[in-house]
Amino acid sequence: MDLASLVMLVLGVGLMLVGARLYSVAVVSPSLAAGAACAVYLPLEPEVRFVVAVIVAGVGAVLCRMVEQAGVRAFGALLAAGATWSVLPLFVDPAPAWGPAAGAAVGLLLFPGAFRALLVPLTSLGGALLVANALGRPDQVLLIVAGAALGTLAQVGLRQKRESEGEE
Hints:
By secondary structure, the protein is mainly alpha-helical. It is built from seven helices and no strands. It is globular and about 50 Å long.
């Protein structure tokens, strides 16, 4: 497993298990994922890809944090594009290349209103998508759904445990 995949895996597991608690990480995760994607997919030398990935992730994280609404919209777009990329081949063979872009546009427009209310399942889904990509299995819908479900259950369980400890 290369470094970029390892970063995607760690970020994905973190988002699945404690994404709602790490709200700031969820907000900047599109930039981290974009940086990791640059490190994996750019046709450059490995050292150059790593530098580009760090720059993309760093600049994107600062911008997303400074303009949180843009970060939330980007998270929604990334999440919807990833979900579309994973699910569309189940319904259309071959899947059109514009499918993820259409999913990203829908996520961009609709996601901000639902973000706070759905933070736990959405961070779990985003984490599951990153894990699937890190493992080289972005088309494995069952893996993504199972990861999202387990992540949601873990986050809800941790929240309930914290609340019960706080009440004592």
